[in-house]
Write a structure and sequence with these properties.
The complex is a heterodimer of chains A (about 400) and B (about 290). Chain A is an alpha/beta fold. Helices cover about 25% and strands about 25% of the residues of chain A. Chain A is built from ten helices and 22 strands. In chain A, helix 7 packs parallel to helix 10. The longest helix of chain A is centred in the first third of the chain and has 17 residues. Chain B is built from nine helices and 15 strands.
C-alpha cells in the first residue's frame, strides 16, 4: 500500500516550513527536498503550511479496518490550572461505553506542566492518559491543539473520541474532523452502544426534535458532549493510570492566531454558570429596582449562580457571560429557577436541559411554564424575598 | 467602477490555493470576503417525514440564519471601511428556494451570490456541507476573509465554519463579537467565559460570528430588495462545482441520522397559585424535597 502522505518532489522547494511545523518532528529536509520520516501521524500540520502544495495526504485511499480502532477517548479540558468538570463527566460516560465494548478508557491531556492532572483523571476513570506537554501548548490555540490531537488519533487509533461541547471543544473538534476526514456529532445529550457502534443522541431545532445518529463507516466515532448532562463519576482515591508521553515539538510559527490581550469584563466568583448545579435567572421583569439583588440572595442561599435573559443583559443588569439562551450559553443545572422570563425559544434553547425547573411569572399563560416542573404564578418581588426567608428558616433547623 | 470589476474578474479566474495569499497588489487596500449563509426555518414547528426520518422543510417559512445575517452585515461594513472597497460574495448550499437568503444578503449589501444547489448535495452532514462550501469558495477565487455565523439556529452544530477553514487551509477565529482590519491582519474580539480575548491573525482567515446581544436581524427595505434582484446571483449544480460525487450529500456523509423524534413530552408543571406567603412556603418545601437545601 502506498504511503498516504506524499511529497511531490517537483513542487517541493526545500523551504523547510513543513519540518518546522511538524509537531512530531519527523520531517527532515534532505537535498533541498522534504522527507517524511517513520513516525508520521498524518496530522496534516505540514500540508497546512506548505506554500507550494507539495505535500498531500490521501485519506480515502486507505481502506479502513474498523476493528483496528480500539478504546474510548476523552479530550480533557484544562483551564487556569484546573481540569474542567466536564472532563470528568466525559470520563463517566466513557467508562460506561468502554465497559460495554470491553475496551479501555483513555484521556488526552494537552498543555504545559499538566502532569499534575493525571491522578484526578485516573481517579475519575481514565485507565491511560496520553500527554502532550509543551510550552507552546500552554494556551489553547486551534492550530497547535488540532494538529497534536489529530496526530495522536492517527497514531493510536481510538474507536471513539469525546470532546466537551465547550467553546474550546466546539472550536477544536470540527477542525480535527475536517483534518482526518471523520464524522462528528455536535452537542450530544445521550450516548450509548448500538450494534457495537456509538449511538449519538442530540437535540436540534432548539430542542424541538431529537436525532439519533450513527457513524457507520469511519473511525474513530467522534462527538462533542454538552457539559452538565452526563453525571460525574464517583472518584476512586488512589487509582492510577498508565501514562503515555507523546513527544511533540511545536514551532510557534505554526500557530497562526495570536493573543493580543485578555480582557475580563466580569469574574464569576470562581464558579462558572455552566458548571453550577443551581442557576437562578431573571428576565425583563427582574430588571426593575432590586430584582437581581433578590435573585442573588436566592442563589446565595442555594449555592447557585445568577443568570439572565438577553433583555436583562441588554439593560446592563448582568454581564454577557451569564446570558442563558441562543446567543448566550446553554446550561443544564440540576435546579433552574427562572423569574420573569416569558419563555421565548431564544431563551428556552439555553435551559431546556435543566433537570428541575421552577418558573416564577405573573402571567399564568407564560410559555415558560411549559418548560417547568413547578410554576409559581405571582410577582417575583413578593415571592422571592419570602422564599429566601423560608429557606433560611429551614436551613436554620 | 470598471477598474475594480476587472480586478475581480482576474481574481475570480485565479485558482484558490488555500494558502496565505496576501492579496491584492493594491497593498491590502481592498478586501475580498466570502460569507457562508444558510436558510433556516423561521419557526419552532418542525415536521418530520415519518418514512425517511428527515425534516420536512417545505411549507415552513424560511429566513436567513440570524448569525449569518450578522456575518453579512459585518462583511459589508468591512468592505465599506476598506480604502479601496472590495467585494462581498455570499455563498449558500441548499434547495433552489434558498436563493432567497442570497437575495436577502445582496439587499444587505453583498455584491454577488452563489447558490450551490443540486440533488446530489442533499442530505449532507456537517463535513460534507463544509466540503461542498469549501469547493465553492475555492472556485470563486482567493479571499482575504471567509465569514460565517457561529452556528445555525436549526442544527446548532457550530461545526461547518471550522471545517471549512481546515479544508481551505486557513486559520479560524470562532465566537467573534467584533472585528477590525489592520493592514493585512484581522484583529478580532473573541468571546470567552469571563470577557473576551483580542486575537490577531494574518489574512486569509475564517471568522465565525456570535451576534451581539442587541442585534435584531432587520429586513432590508423593498427598494434594496428590488435592487438586489439585479445583482449577480448564480446557481451552481455539481456540473459547475466539479466535486467528487462520492463525497457529496447523504452518500458522502460520515454521520447518518437513523431516527428523528419529538423529545418525550414533559409533564405539565405543578402550578402554584395563591398568596406570596403560600407560594414561598410550597416552593421551599419542593426545593427541600428535591434535595437542594
Amino acid at each position: 500500500m502506498a504511503d498516504p502522505i506524499q511529497v511531490n518532489i517537483e513542487k517541493c522547494t526545500g523551504c523547510g516550513l513543513c519540518a518546522k511545523s511538524c509537531p512530531f518532528a519527523v520531517i527532515t529536509v534532505v537535498d533541498k527536498k522534504a522527507r517524511i520520516g517513520d513516525g508520521c501521524t498524518l496530522c496534516s500540520a505540514c500540508v497546512q503550511v506548505c506554500p507550494t502544495e507539495a505535500i498531500t495526504i490521501e485519506r480515502k485511499a486507505v481502506k479502513v479496518d474498523l476493528s483496528a480502532f480500539k478504546d474510548v477517548w476523552i479530550v480533557a479540558e484544562v483551564a487556569e490550572g484546573c481540569t474542567k468538570g466536564v472532563s470528568y463527566e466525559l470520563l463517566g460516560k466513557a467508562h460506561e461505553l468502554a465497559a460495554e465494548l470491553k475496551q479501555h478508557v483513555c484521556a488526552v491531556l494537552i498543555g504545559h506542566n499538566v502532569k499534575g492532572h493525571v491522578d484526578t483523571l485516573a481517579e475519575n476513570g481514565a485507565e491511560k492518559v496520553y500527554i502532550a506537554d509543551n510550552p507552546n501548548l500552554e494556551r489553547y490555540t486551534t492550530d497547535a491543539y488540532s494538529a497534536v490531537i489529530s496526530g495522536m488519533i492517527s497514531k493510536y487509533r481510538p474507536n471513539i473520541v469525546l470532546f466537551p461541547a465547550t467553546k474550546q471543544g466546539r472550536d477544536l473538534a470540527p477542525r480535527i474532523a475536517a483534518t482526518l476526514d471523520l464524522g462528528l456529532t455536535a452537542d450530544c445529550t445521550g450516548l450509548s452502544i448500538k450494534d457495537g457502534m456509538l449511538l449519538q443522541t442530540r437535540p436540534a431545532f432548539g430542542g424541538n426534535i431529537m436525532a439519533d445518529i450513527l457513524c457507520p463507516y469511519s473511525r474513530p466515532q467522534m462527538a462533542t458532549v454538552r457539559p452538565n448532562v452526563m453525571p460525574k463519576p464517583e472518584p476512586k482515591k488512589g487509582r492510577k493510570a498508565e501514562v503515555i508521553d507523546v513527544p511533540v515539538k511545536i514551532d510557534p510559527k505554526s500557530i497562526r492566531t495570536h493573543l493580543r490581550e485578555t480582557v475580563k469584563t466580569c469574574t464569576m466568583g470562581g464558579k462558572k454558570i455552566e458548571e453550577s448545579d443551581v442557576v437562578v435567572t431573571g428576565g425583563r421583569g427582574a430588571c426593575d429596582e432590586n430584582g437581581f439583588e433578590l435573585l442573588q440572595q436566592l442563589a446565595d442561599q442555594l449555592g447557585g449562580v445568577v443568570g439572565a435573559s438577553r433583555v436583562a443583559i441588554d439593560l446592563g443588569k448582568k454581564p454577557k457571560s451569564v446570558q442563558v439562551g441562543q446567543s448566550g450559553i446553554t446550561i443544564s443545572p440540576k435546579l433552574y429557577i427562572v423569574a420573569a422570563v416569558s419563555g421565548a425559544i431564544q431563551h428556552t434553547v439555553g435551559m431546556r436541559g435543566s433537570k428541575f425547573t421552577i418558573a416564577i411569572n405573573s402571567d399564568p399563560a407564560a410559555t415558560i411554564f411549559e418548560y417547568a416542573q413547578v410554576g409559581a404564578v405571582g410577582n417575583l418581588f413578593e415571592i422571592v424575598p419570602k422564599l429566601v426567608d423560608e429557606i433560611k428558616k429551614r436551613k436554620g433547623k | 467602477m470598471p477598474f475594480f470589476a476587472s480586478i475581480f474578474h482576474l481574481l475570480s479566474l485565479c485558482i484558490y490555493r488555500g494558502k496565505p495569499i496576501g492579496h491584492n497588489e493594491e497593498g491590502g487596500k481592498q478586501v475580498r470576503i466570502a460569507v457562508c449563509v444558510k436558510q433556516v426555518p423561521d419557526t419552532s414547528e418542525v415536521k418530520v417525514d415519518p418514512k425517511t426520518g428527515t425534516l420536512i422543510r417545505e411549507g415552513v417559512p424560511s429566513i436567513i440564519n440570524p448569525f449569518d445575517q450578522f456575518a453579512v452585515e459585518e462583511a459589508v461594513r468591512l468592505r465599506d471601511a476598506a480604502e479601496g472597497g472590495g467585494e462581498v460574495v455570499a455563498i449558500s448550499m441548499g434547495p433552489p428556494q434558498a436563493k432567497s437568503v442570497l437575495i436577502h444578503s445582496l439587499a444587505l449589501g453583498a455584491d454577488k451570490g452563489v447558490l450551490l444547489s443540486d440533488r446530489v448535495f442533499a442530505g449532507a452532514d456537517t463535513w460534507v456541507t463544509a466540503y461542498t462550501l469549501a469547493m465553492g469558495i475555492k472556485k470563486l477565487g482567493e479571499f482575504d476573509l471567509v465569514l460565517c455565523g457561529q452556528q445555525a439556529v436549526d442544527g446548532d452544530t457550530a461545526q461547518v465554519g471550522p471545517e471549512v477553514a481546515q479544508m481551505l487551509g486557513i486559520p479560524q477565529i470562532t465566537y467573534v463579537e467584533k472585528v477590525d482590519l489592520e493592514g493585512k491582519k484581522v484583529v478580532a474580539r473573541k468571546q470567552v467565559d469571563e470577557g473576551y480575548d483580542v486575537i490577531e491573525a494574518k489574512m486569509p482567515v475564517l471568522l465565525a460570528f456570535m451576534t451581539p446581544s442587541d442585534f435584531v436581524p432587520s429586513n432590508p427595505p423593498f427598494s434594496k430588495i428590488t435592487k438586489a434582484q439585479k445583482k449577480p446571483c448564480e446557481i451552481w449544480t455539481n456540473a459547475e462545482l466539479g466535486a467528487n460525487p462520492e463525497r457529496l450529500g447523504l452518500k458522502g456523509s460520515f454521520t447518518q441520522v437513523v431516527k428523528v423524534y419529538s423529545p418525550p413530552k414533559r409533564d405539565k408543571a405543578l402550578m402554584l397559585t395563591g398568596s406570596a406567603d403560600e407560594i414561598a412556603k410550597k416552593l421551599a418545601d419542593i426545593i427541600g424535597k428535591e434535595g437542594f437545601l
